[in-house]
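Justification of computing resources. Each target in the renewal requires a structure prediction run like the one illustrated here; the chain below, 332 residues long, is used simply to show the kind of job we budget for.
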Amino acid sequence: MPNIPDRPAGIDRGCIAGDAVRLVTFRHGATGNRDRVGALIDRDEAVVDLGISPGGPAFDSMLALIRAGDEALAAARLAAASPRADAVVAAEEIALRTPLPEPPQIRDCLCFEEHLKRAFEVLRKSRGDGSPGMFEIPEIWYRQPIYYKANRLAVVGHEEDVLWPGYADVMDYELEFGFFIGAGGRDIAKRDARAHIFGYSIFNDFSARDAQAREMPGGLGPGKGKDFDTGNVIGPCIVTADEMDPYDCTMIARVNGEEWSRGHSGSIHWTFEDLVAHVSQSETLHPGEFFGSGTVGGGCGLELERYLSDGDVIELEVEGIGVLRNRLIREA
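Resulting structure tokens:
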């Protein structure tokens, strides 16, 4: 087992300007280990249990809060700004869950050109052929956003173990973040898309690279390269959309405390507004759906030709959101 730096209590704050409301789903023994919705306060040293605050059914779950719209979000802000004493719980007393367990839908997109360039370069080299062949960015990628649908029932959160799938030998992280849909809609214009984004969270799209390499030539996407229990990690919190600029974030990945990857969200090619406008064509988007950004340039082991080992601790940091930390475990 590798040596891991001491973990701080609670979660790491990251770089946030202003008085952002950062929403979480958590469990606390005093409330019967049911999922609770909360807001981080006191530099993340405490959580306000919104279920104890005025707000009614809108605070029953994160999905209920998102569906309830602006009025519920305003009530959450008020509860975080002036919390009831009996609603405040110390961070070390709770266990965080993924912010929205079992989201209605997950789409993971390919928004960063640099990631594709680097990944295809490595794949061409691994085949011993410097010519592009099939490993070049397809023209369609420059004409429209490309995405696949991930397993929404295989989502875990901050500090939860990720289980190495038994059929795989090569495991990788992917440094991403993404957004949750707030107000649903259909045929949404790009100029109106920001109003449909509820908030942002970090996404680690764990990948079984050997399984992915076997199945991708089939033409239907990654399949078991991505679909395994605990393979989608979202967290640690949701930062509401009006509290950060998603295109001005430093993104860092560390493995066992060592920095492996660093990128910047400003290098994005397809914006989140592009994604909303494209996907909503003749298709209704629903509150709580999650869109991943795809891997930032340099943001995975494939690009570095460096892969994960049993017991590794992976930390993804996105400025303005915080740090998402998980340990990769190969089951006996």
